[in-house]
Write a structure and sequence with these properties.
Largest sheet: 7 strands, antiparallel
Order of helices and strands: HEEEEEEE
Distance between the termini: 74 Å
Number of helices: 1
Strand content: 35-45%
Number of strands: 7
Number of domains: 1
Radius of gyration: 22 Å
Length: 122
C-alpha cells in the first residue's frame, strides 16, 4: 500500500516536471512590437515614407523623431517622439546609445500592426 502511494507521488512529480519543462524550454519567436500612434493620428502623415519591397505584401515605413525611455512602461520600454505623435515601442534590443538622439525608426507593416526592423541614428 505504501509503495503504491509513493509511486503515485513519483509519477505526479514527473508529470509536473514535464509540463514545467515544456513551458520553460519551448521556443517562441521574439517579436519587437511597436504600438500604434497615440492621439488619434492617421497613417497619412507626410513625415512617414513608405517603400514597398518587391515580391512582398508588407511595406517598409520610416518614422523620424527622438528616441527616449518610455514615460509609460505599460505601453512600451522606449518611445519615439516626433512633432505630431508619440509612438511607444516594446523591444528587447539595446538602443541605449541612441537615447535622446534623432533617429529613423524602420518598421514593417502599417501603423496599426507592425514590427520593429531597426532604429538608426540620423
Amino acid at each position: 500500500m505504501a509503495m503504491q502511494k509513493n509511486t503515485q507521488y513519483i509519477i505526479g512529480g514527473i508529470v509536473i516536471l514535464i509540463i514545467a519543462g515544456f513551458f520553460l524550454f519551448r521556443t517562441t519567436p521574439i517579436n519587437d512590437n511597436v504600438s500604434p500612434p497615440q492621439d488619434g493620428q492617421s497613417a497619412d502623415q507626410p513625415q512617414d515614407k513608405t517603400e514597398d519591397e518587391p515580391g512582398e505584401n508588407t511595406s517598409l515605413r520610416i518614422m523620424e523623431g527622438i528616441i527616449k525611455i518610455s514615460d509609460d512602461l505599460k505601453k512600451g520600454n522606449l518611445m519615439l517622439v516626433s512633432p505630431d505623435r508619440t509612438t511607444y515601442i516594446f523591444t528587447s534590443r539595446d538602443y541605449s546609445n541612441l537615447l535622446d538622439k534623432e533617429v529613423k525608426l524602420e518598421i514593417e507593416g502599417d501603423l496599426e500592426n507592425f514590427t520593429l526592423i531597426d532604429i538608426i541614428a540620423k
